[in-house]
Structures are given as C-alpha cells and as structure tokens.
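Thread amino acids onto this structure.
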C-alpha cells in the first residue's frame, strides 16, 4: 500500500474531529474523499500530509511512518493543495509555480534544467502557460486555483492531496483537472463535493460523516440511494451511463 492510516484520531479541545479513521490506498490510484460540510475531510487531509499530528494512530507512506520522515523528505514527496490557499505577495505566476521546487533544491545548487522542466510541464498541465508572466494579483479565482495546482505538480510529488480542487473552476476546467489527476498516475486523495465527478474520476471513495468513516469501496459500491439519504439527506435516482452511472437528484 502506498498510503496507510490506522485508527487516526484528531481532537480540538474536547471535540473529536477525525474519529478513528483507517484507510489504505494502492499506489497510483485516486481516492475520492466525500462527506458533508464539516465532516472532517480537510482535517484528515492535513493529518495525512503531515501538517497536523494525530492524537492517536499512525500514518505510513510505503511502509514508513511519517513521524520518522524528515520535513524535507516529506515535502519532496507529498503535495497538499489546500482550500482557500492564499498567496498575498505580488509575484508572477511563474514564480508562484517555481516555489513548488523549493523542497528539491539545495542552497548550493542553482536553478537547474530539471527545475525549469518541472515548472514548464506543470504550467502546461493546468493550461496556464500563457499566463506565466502575468501578476498573481490580477488572476481570477479559478486561474489562481489552477496556479496553486501547478505549484503542487511542479513539486513532482509521489502523493498528491487536493482539497476541493474544482472549487472556483468552470465546468471545462473542473473536468480537465479531474481528468488530469486521474491520468497522472500519482497516489492521490481528492476531497470533492460533486458526487458525479467522484464517480467518474475516482478509483475508490471514502465517505466521512461526523469525522467517522461510513463507507469505503468503489464508486458503485459506495454511492447508493441509501447512503446518500443517510449521509447527505438527499433523494436520488441512478441512471446508467457510459462511465458507469449518473446520480440524478430529486427536487
Ligand atoms: N483548528 C480547528 N479548530 C477548531 N475546530 C476545527 C479546526 N479545524 C477544523 N475544525 C472543525 O472540525 C470540523 C471539520 O472541519 P473540516 O474543515 O475538516 O471539514 P470538511 O469536511 O473539510 O468541511 P467542508 O466540506 O465544509 O470543507 C468542523 O466542524 C470545523 O469547524
């Protein structure tokens, strides 16, 4: 397994936010993290990326406990694109993406061709090459989101965690981004609200409710009318679709 978590608990004061979560992800697959607002998706992603320490439980990357991996090694292999990621400094788009190379660079070595190639590829993957010299401040919300994702891709991570990456994106870029993530071949965990997108692009799903895992499996196993009613309090029908099925929500 690429990423494995056992019995993770994370609390703030007396409130348990991530409640005994275990999961395992096969290398190169995409896990969709679903759940209502406040169910603990972002908190779980921060634990998995090593930004927060669980109160109890263990996370391993290819068998190594992340608590034993140095900050730098972790930064070289794990990328997290958070929601509302802010970059206030006025920089050119290209310079924001170049920040993704920081964990790979040593103070003695200069900027290498490998660094340039990673930045060029990342900009191209999110369709932002034409914006490379544009000021960050002048970008729209969706364009900023794509630049943040490019910065994560420039990092050339082995594990990629994305917190609602399609927020702010128009439908073309939502689909383009999810297609890209599915094709990258990285081990990825993506928090999503669009259940149809989760079904279309994720290999496996994990549903959280009140910090607890309530379902895991393939999209067809997890997304049932019963589960959607129980967790999201919505009524729906399922229609066959070339990619499997499509969820039709009732008014
Ligand atoms: N640092 C913190 N201090 C206090 N409460 C927190 C903290 N971080 C998260 N929470 C609480 O934990 C719960 C889960 O939050 P989290 O952001 O992980 O949920 P989420 O599933 O990502 O939600 P959303 O879909 O709305 O983004 C929320 O009730 C939130 O208020």
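Threaded sequence (251 positions):
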């Amino acid at each position: 397994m690429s990423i494995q978590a056992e019995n993770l608990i994370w609390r703030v004061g007396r409130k348990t936010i991530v409640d005994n979560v275990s999961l395992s992800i096969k290398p190169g697959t995409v896990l969709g993290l679903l759940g209502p607002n406040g169910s603990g998706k972002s908190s779980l992603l921060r634990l998995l990326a090593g930004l927060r320490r669980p109160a109890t439980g263990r996370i391993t990357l290819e068998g190594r406990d992340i608590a034993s991996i140095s900050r730098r090694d972790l930064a070289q292999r794990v990328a997290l694109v958070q929601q509302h990621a802010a970059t206030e400094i006025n920089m050119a788009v290209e310079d924001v993406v170049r920040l993704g190379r920081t964990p790979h660079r040593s103070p003695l070595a200069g900027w290498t061709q490998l660094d340039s190639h990673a930045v060029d590829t990342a900009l191209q993957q999110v369709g932002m090459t034409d914006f490379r010299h544009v000021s960050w401040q002048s970008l729209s919300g969706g364009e900023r989101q794509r630049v943040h994702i490019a910065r994560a891709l420039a990092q050339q991570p082995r594990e990629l965690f994305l917190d609602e990456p399609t927020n702010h994106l128009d439908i073309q870029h939502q689909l383009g981004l999810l297609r890209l993530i599915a094709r990258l071949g990285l081990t990825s965990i993506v928090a999503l609200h669009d259940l149809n997108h989760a079904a279309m692009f994720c290999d496996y799903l994990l549903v959280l409710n009140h910090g607890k895992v309530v379902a895991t499996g393939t999209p067809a196993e997890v997304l049932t009318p019963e589960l959607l009613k129980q967790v999201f309090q919505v009524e729906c029908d399922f229609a066959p679709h070339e990619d499997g099925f499509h969820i039709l929500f009732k008014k």
